[in-house]
């Protein structure tokens, strides 16, 4: 299986998800402009994959700029913190991973022994060229180590989510999902689809109803592609068809991913998620969020504080390159919506299955996950 993203040694290779399912095209990302472009046009997407990619893009940025001193490298990283970290505002993993990687590397650089950063024979401690180069090389190594660790941790988190989710959904066969929260959206097997893969691996029957996910069709294009590729029974349904399928008893449970989870459990995910949650609540079926603890932004008390990315209206006007709307029609294009915690049966995380009241279960899960620093959001 082609990995969604991969560090080649001096660049990041990604599957260009804008080209799926028609063709499997790989992109070699070796400068910041291409990295930001890939994020903005969703060539790489899904909150955890964005985090792993954004962290690696810092190394690409350092290699591209070749700063001549640690001070210049620090300045560059502070610029990249925003240029890369804020390229998509709702997916908290992106800014979280960029912050974590930069902060770890800078802390290591600050603790470097004076002999590795400065000319020991200079009483004023001024760096010479070779010691500066050594400091920048160590900083680069630290960035790379942290970025690779983020990807590895995400892969482990997906496996844990799959394990917990499989136990929880032992009796569910027909699973509805929205957007793509699978291997294309993470550095592992996925969150919502991680549960599906775990059920399939355990030999349990499983069938997925994938909502097509207008306007960019991540469900129809990506979820259908990766599940079919894995030999899993998948049917694409129009977004508007899901409510009646749920109401008609054709769905056992709904599982979706998340882009940002507030401290009270309110969850932002791809626009259209809320409609499925409302339909599930009305029908009395279970509605689950599957997400790593890194998607929890404990700085935000509730979903009202989550910034919703507004995307280009042209995405709504067009489908498959064809304009659908009259030329003078206006479109609005919020990329995400917020499902209130009261509609969520449980949140399946790498730290276990969280149940209401979420303010308490989330606080406990974050403490168990080591109290790692979360997003920098303010409300
Ligand atoms: O705009 P996208 O395609 O990046 O949106 C992705 C989603 O909404 C996913 O459900 C979410 O990021 C979780 S991915 C494990």
Write up this protein.
It is a single chain. The protein is of the alpha/beta class and 379 residues long. The chain has 12 helices and 16 strands. It has a 7-stranded mixed β-sheet, with helices on both faces. It has a 4-stranded mixed β-sheet with strand order 11-8-9-14, covered by helices on one side. The longest helix is centred in the middle third of the chain and has 40 residues, at 129-168. Mean pLDDT is 94; it is low at 115-127. Bound molecules: 5-S-methyl-1-O-phosphono-5-thio-D-ribulose. 5-S-methyl-1-O-phosphono-5-thio-D-ribulose (MRU) is lined by residues 42, 45-48, 91, 179, 181, 185-186, 191, 218, 256-259, 269-270, 335. 5-S-methyl-1-O-phosphono-5-thio-D-ribulose binds next to helix 2 and strand 9.
Q: What's the number of helices?
A: 12
Strand content: 15-25%
Contiguous uncertain segments of 5+ residues: 115-127
Q: Can you write the helix and strand succession as a string?
A: EEEHHHHHHEHEHEHEEEHEEHEEEEEH
> Which cofactors or ions or other ligands sit in this model?
5-S-methyl-1-O-phosphono-5-thio-D-ribulose
Q: Determine the N-to-C terminus distance.
A: 41 Å
Oligomer: single chain
Mean pLDDT: 94
Question: Pairing-aware structural class of the strands and helices?
Answer: alpha/beta
- Across the major sheet, the strand order is 6-5-4-7-10-15-16
**Large-scale geometry:** globular
Helix content: 40-55%
Count of β-strands? 16
Radius of gyration based on Cα positions: 22 Å
Largest sheet: 7 strands, mixed
